[in-house]
Specification:
The chain has a four-stranded antiparallel β-sheet, with no helix packed on it. Strands 4-5-6-7 form a four-stranded antiparallel β-sheet, with no helix packed on it. Strands 8-9-10-11 form a four-stranded antiparallel β-sheet, with no helix packed on it. The chain has about 325 residues and is mostly beta strands. A hairpin with a 6-residue loop joins strand 22 and strand 23. The chain is globular and about 90 Å long. Helix content is about 5%, strand content about 40%.
Length: about 325
């Protein structure tokens, strides 16, 4: 019996030890494509693809373009242009330079000379679903379908410019002097048309507002004379403003890369006085130059979900417009 017991113990001691199952493979962190930036270079639209640093002209010819605004789908750009007749209206174009389309048809320039100011950057803006475009002309705010149809007034007689939709579409923020000596940021609730003053500067002007994707923060530049700096603040009440450039020569800020980065324009120093495009973190760190040959009025576009190709035999950006929404 003792021999039998020892044999059993020996047999049990030779059993293969149970091994713990291997841990599941780690879930990779999704990589968000960097998308593109559309900006103005020598009076025309240019696209910079951030993954390859490739620059592609989108418009050309005798027209002059101002203040591009990329759609939230990354497939189109709305912008001001004086087209073929010298009168500024809103246009849009595909991200590859095809299908240039006129959206508004004012017979007198809707973008007045005083609005052609880089400190202000009175671009149009898209709703977060891409279905609506909002813009300012002659101090009034208008909204239309993204194809130019069904224009309607949103706010009249408030010396308004630079309107932008909040991400939830419930409010429109805009810049106005109202009864002040300087421009401040205001918010308009679309449901009941109530107005609220967001900032209360007395000796600096606000320009170029831009919402973060969650609607909690807002970017803008403060300017007076030839000094301009980029600030970030709480979007609801303008509290806790933080200067994130602090160099007196930065303007036209925009959130980019789904709110993880900021793009803006800045002047060089010394002999390098040209205006170029820069990118940095939302706290103002890790500044990186994106251009070196002139750039203004940047607008970020996510990686395109639709691949668009120019019509064979036609040069992108110089084809005749297809009027809609007249």
């Amino acid at each position: 019996m003792a021999i039998l017991a020892m044999g059993l113990l020996a047999a049990e001691g030779c059993k293969k030890k149970m091994e713990a199952p291997p841990p599941p493979p780690p879930t990779p962190t999704p990589v968000i494509p960097p998308g593109s930036v559309v900006f103005i270079q020598r009076g025309h639209l240019v696209r910079l693809d951030l993954d390859s640093n490739q620059i592609t002209p989108l418009t050309g010819g005798k027209s002059t373009e101002w203040f591009p605004a990329c759609s939230p789908l990354g497939d189109q750009v709305a912008y001001w242009s004086n087209g073929e007749d010298g009168v500024y209206n809103l246009w849009k174009i595909n991200m590859d330079g095809s299908q240039r389309t006129q959206l508004t048809f004012d017979e007198v320039s809707a973008l007045e000379p005083g609005d052609q100011n880089l400190m202000v950057n009175t671009s149009a803006a898209w709703s977060s679903d891409g279905k609506k475009i909002i813009y300012a002309t002659r101090g009034d705010i208008w909204m239309m379908d993204s194809d130019g149809y069904n224009p309607e007034s949103v706010l009249l007689g408030h010396e308004a410019f630079c309107p932008i939709f909040s991400p939830d579409g419930k409010t429109v923020d805009f810049v106005s002097k109202q009864d002040d000596q300087v421009s401040n940021l205001w918010a308009l609730t679309l449901s009941d048309k109530t107005l609220k003053k967001v900032t209360n500067y007395t000796d600096w002007n606000v320009g170029s507002p831009s919402f973060s994707m969650d609607g909690k923060k807002i970017l803008y530049n403060l300017y007076r004379s030839n000094i301009s700096q980029v600030y970030i603040a709480n979007a609801v009440d303008g509290s806790e403003p933080l200067n994130i450039t602090n160099n007196n020569r930065s303007l036209e800020p925009r959130f980019s890369l789904n709110g993880r980065k900021i793009i803006y324009c800045g002047y060089g120093t010394g002999d390098d006085v040209g205006l170029n495009l820069y990118q940095m973190n939302t706290n103002g760190t890790e500044t990186k130059a994106l251009t070196a040959d002139e750039a203004s009025s940047p607008s970020w576009a996510p990686a395109r979900t639709v691949t668009l190709n120019p019509t064979p035999g036609k040069t992108p950006g110089v084809s005749l417009p297809t009027p809609v929404g007249k």
